[in-house]
Amino acid sequence: MAAYFIPSRIHPTAEQTDLQTATQPVVLGEANAGAAKTTTLALRIAESLARNVEPARILALAFTPEARDVLRQRLLDIGVPWDTVNQLDILTIEDLAMRTLEQLEGEPLKLTLQPRRLKTHVWRAIDAVAAQYAGRPGSRYAELDLRKSEIAVSGYLDTLLRLKARMALQGEHDDDPVEAAEVAGEPLTDYLVALAYETIRLDGAEQAQFRTRFDPTYDLARMLRREPGCAQGFPRYRVIVCDELHDMNEASFVIVEALIRATGAFFTGVGDKHQVIHDQLGASHDYLDFRFRHAFPALRSYPLTTTYRHGPHLTLAIDALMDNRGSSGVPDHTEIRQLHYDTAEECAQRVVEAIKAWKKDKHRLEQCAVLMRDRHQSIALENALIEAGIGYRVPVMKGYMQREEILFLRGVLAITLDDLRAVPSYEVRTAIVEALAAFAGMEAAAGFEKVKHDIAKEPSLLPGFFRGHLGGDALADADTAFADVMRYLAEVAPDSPAGEVLAEVCRRMDVAVVAKRVYVNPYAASVAARSIDGFVAMARKSGLGLAAFWKKINAAEVFASRKREKDFVHLDCVADVKGQEFGHVIMPYLEVNEFPNPLVPARTERNLFYVGVSRTRQRLTLLSPTEAERRSGFLRQMQIAAVAPKADQALRQLEDKVREERPVRLYLTARYEDREEVRQLGAQFDTVRKQWYIDAGLDTGPFQRWL
Ligand SMILES: Nc1ncnc2c1ncn2[C@@H]1O[C@H](COP(=O)(O)OP(=O)(O)OP(=O)(O)O)[C@@H](O)[C@H]1O
């Protein structure tokens, strides 16, 4: 079918146009990375606008705020004006759930985000399970393994999230928890704790007493399951689209399915099953593979196989990695550079060189992204960037100096030197006090909230508070590790070597163990412990005394947090840049035990690596150890050299094809006051792009001044 909407900038492929103009009520697009899923969804929205659907009756959904922003950008890219984009509802599923619950409950939703603040609820749940089941007849109950350690709490919270994401916490086996746990595939203890936790959270009432991340989605899904009539409260959308279906889980599916049925809207979803990286949240390719088809038997699937993000050299290497069969529509040679290093610092130096080479080739720095597997890797990278005077932005992941574990060590320095005042930002001073309290295990102390702000306002109170609280008379008796650290610091001279002092603090505190208590999740704790190691190593290497080191990091923070509109590179974790793209992608630390991370399932790691490399438009720089045995296996799997001849050939064919392409319409620069004149000459008005145009075959002579 001919499209009503013609985009600016791009020529859609036949596959894209088929999806843009599809007439079936429920449509899925199955694609490879960069194969224009989001762009095609934008085309689908624009097509609806061109067919007179009001913007306010269109809902565009994504799973993450980043993906939501990319969708907005793609609409602008294809020529939908800013005003129109602003009238559309472009939301994450969690945004939609929050908005719907707020309407139903009549008050704003508050979320408790840090896992450690949920710990007391988990402990109460454990006590409740012990009271209810211990000593109950039945061999399964005798095996209950109720522990309150940090690792156990973290395990319970992980299970809880998995159960909620999969909507596996209630069901037909409610009266027999043993069977219910078995069906859910979780240990009985975890299942019972999860049930008890939810009883506390909901406190017998419908309205939750507290909520954390994902609870809004889960609560709305629960409500829709129990009372499908609630769905009638959704706005009367006529068109719904959903991006990144590979992030879908059962709770989100319940919401989307209810939305489609209640509104009768036309639905289009797109996804790429190789981009499933959130298995923890119950994401699975099942939704793309069969759940939608099962719920909507008339569904029609459309493939999207051509990537427009990069040329054939990278496309074919990605095909080799993923065992895929995509092709490229970009007639450019996407460069893949490989560099090697021996140490973490050398790797960071290579990153700086790669950025400088990009700049020297006259490209913009903002088009360059350094994508890491994990945030602990950023210490060496940030230091190297600061040293080289290269501005950077850390959009999702905070810069290392503002991460809790490092704020704790900065707090230690501030106490020792009695110089919290040297930290210019009020927020950072507050965060330092919070981090100290968290690592000292006293963040829940009565009145702490007020004290925190008092100290941030009057920094000279800091040493007195932490020493006095656990010190003074109490200090002599206190046998906590933190009190021991306070005693040690009281003896330390300001010119003592910073590296040695911090190492001693970490040793006395046993920070790896403390990190487990603070972070609860073992994986997050291991990343934090590695960050701490990196920071201490950096202090050692600097050779500076405490006072000089303190000055250096505060100056570095001022450099790093300067607001920049241009001349900066992006520094982020791969998992946080899904949906985005960059001219130059640099991937450091591609080595055994870093990427793939051995704590994560192999398939998820490969998908994550694929997400990283597929963000590239023009140049990909891969950094791995000089020693071949230490290199990440993914590099070999890409078969970069082996696919090059085939890629050269594909590139030549593409160059020929592009020469033959002709636009369908020519858009004019005519303004409002020219409207009668151009209309009489035969021009037509595009109501979506709000521009005059002529069909390509028309004589352009009379229109020269508007072309
Ligand atoms: N027909 C086309 N011609 C030229 N460029 C296109 C075309 N369609 C899309 N593009 C461009 O291709 C790039 C990738 O598109 P898009 O972001 O929509 O892909 P995606 O499949 O959603 O990516 P991912 O899921 O990997 O984030 C964008 O820069 C987009 O502008």
UniProtKB/TrEMBL annotation:
The keyword Cytoplasm belongs to this UniProt entry's keyword annotation: no
Enzyme class label: isomerase
Residue ranges of domain UvrD-like helicase ATP-binding in the record: 10-311
UniProt-listed InterPro entries: DExx_box_DNA_helicase_dom_sf, DNA_helicase_UvrD-like_C, DNA_helicase_UvrD/REP, DUF5710, P-loop_NTPase, UvrD-like_ATP-bd
Reactions mediated catalytically: Couples ATP hydrolysis with the unwinding of duplex DNA by translocating in the 3'-5' direction; ATP + H2O = ADP + phosphate + H(+)
Binding site for ATP: 31-38
Recorded superkingdom: Bacteria
S-adenosyl-L-methionine in keyword set: no
Keywords: ATP-binding, DNA-binding, Helicase, Hydrolase, Isomerase, Nucleotide-binding
Gene Ontology terms describing biological process: recombinational repair
E.C. no: 5.6.2.4
Pfam families attached to this UniProt entry: DUF5710, UvrD-helicase, UvrD_C
Regions crossing the membrane: none
One function term, GO molecular function aspect: 3'-5' DNA helicase activity
Family listed: Belongs to the helicase family. UvrD subfamily.
PANTHER family, alphabetized: ATP-DEPENDENT DNA HELICASE SRS2, UVRD / RECB / PCRA DNA HELICASE FAMILY MEMBER
Name of the featured protein: DNA 3'-5' helicase
